[in-house]
Amino acid sequence: MTPNQLEETTEYLIAKGFDKPEIGIVLGTGLGQLVAEIKDPVEAHYNHIPSFPLATVEFHTGKLIYGEIEGKKVVVMQGRFHLYEGYDLIDITYPIRVMEKLGIKKLLVSNAAGAINLDFKKGDLMLIDDHINLQGGSPLAFKNVAEFGERFVDMSQPYDKEMGDALSKIAGEQNISLKKGVYASVVGPQLETRAEYRYLKIIGADAVGMSTVPEVIVANHLNLPCVAVSVLTDECNPDNLKPINVPEIIEVAGKAEPKMIILFKELIKQL
């Protein structure tokens, strides 16, 4: 990745009509319905955007969408990139750098995750309060990182407290149950063993997924305040573990998503 590549990508998007977005949004697995809320959308497919990685997962459609939600200019990533697809961490987080270069001042992230905390149930939403990076690398571990910002980034408060508090308040007002917890990010694509679920619980994880942490690290690198919500699609009880059912996970995500859309729309209104 070079500053010139970033420049070329953003110039292409500006020419497409991506005009000074204020808020960036990353949509997770099975969480694409928010795009229906975008007014006057302008789309750019990943495979047409210079220097952009391509989405390979079947339920990630692979486009950037620009438009308005609640009167604010937004740019939405419909389809994100994962380590398990063979991308490296620099590719995975490239879109965050692009959105920041386009002008976003806030980042909203969603994902589908498994509940490690057994007080949390399938279909619950969880505000990510902190995270554990188990992906074995960093999106900042490359030679010319200093061209893009500080090499050593403080992660004592990776998620913006103000936006998190606002989401909690909105959830209370809208009668939506919003848990709060620690998200562990693993490589995947295989799901965890019983022993791995026990390990995740011991180290303090409330939920586990295969995304989000790289994007959040880069948001912090760019001094971009961010907030993240997990839709909990399965319960990971090592003492009663059922074989994985991917269609069911997608279905649970789809059913819980309207609650997440309410939270994000109300937050966008306040930003």
Automatic annotation (TrEMBL):
Gene Ontology cellular-component terms listed: cytoplasm
Domain of life per record: Bacteria
Taxonomic lineage: Bacteria, Pseudomonadati, Bacteroidota, Flavobacteriia, Flavobacteriales
The protein, known as: Purine nucleoside phosphorylase
GO BP annotation list: nucleoside metabolic process
Pathways per UniProt: Purine metabolism; purine nucleoside salvage
GO terms of molecular function: purine-nucleoside phosphorylase activity
Domain called Nucleoside phosphorylase: residue spans: 23-269
EC number: 2.4.2.1
Described purpose of this protein according to its UniProt entry: The purine nucleoside phosphorylases catalyze the phosphorolytic breakdown of the N-glycosidic bond in the beta-(deoxy)ribonucleoside molecules, with the formation of the corresponding free purine bases and pentose-1-phosphate.
NCBIfam families referenced in this protein's UniProt entry, alphabetically: PNPH (TIGR01700), PNPH-PUNA-XAPA (TIGR01697), PRK08202.1 (NF006054)
Species of origin: Leptobacterium flavescens
Keywords: Glycosyltransferase, Transferase
Pfam families: PNP_UDP_1
PANTHER family tied to this protein: METHYLTHIOADENOSINE/PURINE NUCLEOSIDE PHOSPHORYLASE, PURINE NUCLEOSIDE PHOSPHORYLASE-RELATED
Annotated family: Belongs to the PNP/MTAP phosphorylase family.
